[in-house]
From TrEMBL, chains A, B, C, D:
Listed pathway(s): Amino-acid biosynthesis; L-phenylalanine biosynthesis; phenylpyruvate from prephenate: step 1/1
Biological process terms in GO annotation: L-phenylalanine biosynthetic process
Domain ACT: 198-275
Native source species: Kitasatospora viridis
Annotated protein name in UniProt: Prephenate dehydratase
Residue span, Prephenate dehydratase domain: 5-183
Spans annotated as Disordered: 275-297
Length: 311, 311, 311, 311
């Protein structure tokens, strides 16, 4: 049944699957690994799954460009939930292997910069080779094609391996952010600690366009949480921006900002308002930009129209 | 009956009275000259008159500060109509007087800079003296205390005088703007060519406050038509700004701007939306800031909330 | 000798003269009262005086428009010094006069709003009449044409009068600011607590022009201390702005700002950098805008040109 | 000799090598392919090569993040030249192979999105497999492990292959931009059509920081040509920006902008001013922001300091 199916970027045993299991409803869904981000999202577009769970950014490697580009193009999708997962690696080995036995190690290329320092300090002579995913690296160790795989500790059992070292990560606070994506639908109610995502295109060759775009946020005191530029595919120098801001589309300061963007940008795609994984409530730093300030100003306007502006 | 009474800055025979007569309804009102702008406005505040007609700015002399300060302070009032009057003077003399007879001339001090050039060229030896108003100057000529008065040509008959020269004005396009002021009431319908007036106070000692205030207009493409700074009376360096912008409070781009000002400024007084005397329709110069753009963006927002943002 | 002569807006016995005497060098100058601001300034332009001392703004009444307009137009002049004078009035009477004897009072019209409250409380039945200056009001009392004159207490002796009440002022902190004006010359050295004055014209009909002008200041963290709009005399809606900002033309943040204004405005007139009367040092509120920050950035730029930007 | 050695991202036969050969001096240099961008750049840092030639952005795939991150971190480097290369692919096969024989095709993963449409239309049943580089894909075809490789037509001879189809590219105008990087040195003279590159860090958690950064450019009319956000590696939400703007560091409008960035940003790295590959001269779109405008303003400032501002 597609209504109970979630796709995700597989295979099983990756950080994506681990992150997906932190969503309570994952327990009652059929979780289907697929080989690529486009495949996971296309299953949703085709109605074969209710949701797709994919990484969208990493604090070390940056945007997951496949996800950013898929959300910006093709049939529209919306984000309904986000998950933050601190990333640290275990070195998984076949039972009985000792550190001095490890000559060849493997991982997904994205993991490599995060374990480089650990390798230099602990296995300076080991040879690193790329795997299609961290889980696939574990499989290579299981099959004897490598001696150690950098992967999540949770992948050990799945492949009959043991962690020889854990909590490996070069950058402190390495975190990956995942999103649950579905077909467009009615925006759910605000929780008080929400986030809004969008893709905004700049007009061709308008030098101040990015500045104007940012002013729409600034004048309403709406803080940006993420901004990633992506080429539009129409020649060097043409960008769109994937943006997350704090707040919910039903809040006046957010809706006024998005209407402003819609007016000045040639194209905008609203990607959803959804609860922040960190549950932090936005703290407007400029005077006059809280939700209460917006509501009071609207009340005042109504009184002005009636000649009671000073009441 | 106060409902049919309009006060104005007298005496009869001034440019103010001439401008007031250009309003069609003036024909059916009791027109009461009063000796000062505060007196004319206080009669409205006290319910003794339905409207007060006063000058608010002059293209040569600048703001009529008494009017600006009265509208900014005291019990609230609203502007309902404006009149533009090109200002040119006649030299009024007793019948039979020739130019060579004119030794002493008089006018209100405000008129003096506008006739200075004409005097230098035509009456280099005449002595100028101040009068309480241009009409009062005509009275002084009538009584023989001066030989010529600079006043509106329309004042001649009232004082038994004749114009010896007409169309006297040093600055081309010298214009005075007058407003009809009443007690606060429901804002009337937009005409498509309207103007909105307000007074805005800046917070004490916030250096960027004026910049932020102007950005509220700029980000919505609302053009300023007039901005006058006035001291607040609380020490040097503390100002409020008397502002006219194009558009009507019922237009989204104007109402959003005023709500923005209300949020960021410690105090704001809405002084009315009323038809422009020049009947020019506003021409938004930035893309994305027409009323239609604002309406389309609001429609799009409603669709986004329903998950149909791309429909 | 013109080199030792200072003109001022007379007559003797006014606040202007009192303020002028606070300048140390006034003791060694010939002080010449003249009947108008233009007359005082034209004497400097003509080389008949080394300086002119005139009021430029008042915390209650606003700009002294004659001074603002004279500095903006005609042959260029520069400001070399400023003086702040707290304004409070004395009621001057002929010796022996008691409060109950005072039926007619007089003052310059500008003084009237500042004594209105005192009159209402202390002499509710007295009739007020305009005088050409506060000192001239004292003369009228001396001659018996009025019973009391509102003027500076220092004027009493000059006219054989006595103060019946002192320290009269409706607004707390009423202050008038005066400037010493001379022909343009080399800018004197900065003192660390300086002010820079200028007049800036906006391009015709460019709606965002004032915003852009203010951004030149804001981006360099230069605080505005005064901004007054004045009509240019070319029709309603055309303004120039008389501006004081903190800092000295020899400071990088000030010179960069003025060069920015010069680039974007059709016309600018530099009116001088001179010591602040309040001796307060500017306190840049934005990070990165102190003089030291500007100097460090210039050093860094020089290193970059040599390929040593990270040194 | 290191002074005549250029490293590049190998192997031979890639687009990088083809682009490098468009530089005249490449003919007299020893060209050394290295297996990664960091390896190519580290050889320069270590003094083993005079320059490294690497891709920096692609109009379809976006930033080459390895290059961006290497230039932002580690020992400083500078860009001295750029090359633009239009990207189109040939399908390289062993001599005698026909289209119907092609069952397995290969290329670098970055090439895959650019040939996806061609594959769907011409070889719908072929299986695509990843290669380490496009040149490596050609080697796989040579060795019989694949039937066709998407690579530059210039790679055919190197591997004994023939182009079966040419000019394959899904996106029109697909272009890759390469840069020649060296150790920091004196900035060379401007050509009139130059570009300046830098990396700028935003302060932690300052919401308006990106807006302020862009205003430094906007207020001097300096157009951005590229802006790419990169995570700093210190947790989600912390970015630096890799920026190219038009103009040369020796132009006042550029140097003033960079000094402004240096003042307000916690960290900035100047990456060089060098000739634009497209040889287009910058066209300032805002009035008052040409080099001539900047020079005139500086002249005026010098006159103001001497009291001759109106001369």
């Amino acid at each position: 049944m597609s209504a109970t199916r979630y796709t995700y970027l597989g295979p099983a045993g990756t950080f994506t699957e681990a992150a997906l299991h932190t969503l309570p409803e994952a327990a009652t869904r059929e979780l289907v690994p697929l080989p690529s981000v486009p495949a996971a999202l296309d299953a949703v577009r085709a109605g074969e799954a209710a949701g797709a769970f994919v990484a969208i950014e990493n604090s070390v490697e940056g945007a997951v460009t496949a996800t950013a580009d898929e959300l910006a193009n093709g049939a529209p999708l919306m984000i309904y939930r986000e998950v933050l997962l601190p990333i640290s690696f275990a070195l998984l080995v076949r039972p009985g292997t000792e550190l001095t036995d490890v000559k060849r190690v493997t991982s997904h290329p994205v993991a490599q910069p995060q374990v480089r320092g650990w390798l230099r300090d602990n296995l300076p002579d080991a040879v690193w080779e790329a795997a299609a995913s961290n889980a696939d690296g574990a499989r290579l160790v299981q099959e004897g094609q490598a001696d150690g795989a950098f992967a999540g500790e949770f992948a050990a059992a799945l492949y009959g391996l043991e962690p020889l070292a854990t909590d490996i990560h070069d950058a402190a606070e390495a975190t990956t952010r995942f999103v649950l994506v579905g077909r467009p639908g009615r925006v759910s109610s605000p929780t008080g600690a929400d986030k809004t995502s969008m893709v905004v295109w700049l007009g061709d060759n308008h030098p101040g366009a990015l500045l104007e775009l940012l002013q729409e946020f600034a004048v309403r005191g709406v803080n940006l949480m993420r901004i990633e530029s992506r080429p539009t595919g129409h020649g060097l120098g043409n960008y769109c921006f994937s943006i997350d801001c704090e707040g919910h589309l039903t809040e006046r300061r957010v809706s006024e900002t998005l209407m402003g963007l819609r007016r000045i940008c040639p194209q905008i795609r609203f990607l959803g308002s959804y609860p922040r994984a960190d549950r932090r409530e936005p703290t407007p730093r400029q005077p006059g930009t809280s939700n209460q300030d917006f509501d009071r100003a609207a009340d005042w306007l109504a009184r002005c129209l009636d000649g009671r502006g000073e009441a």
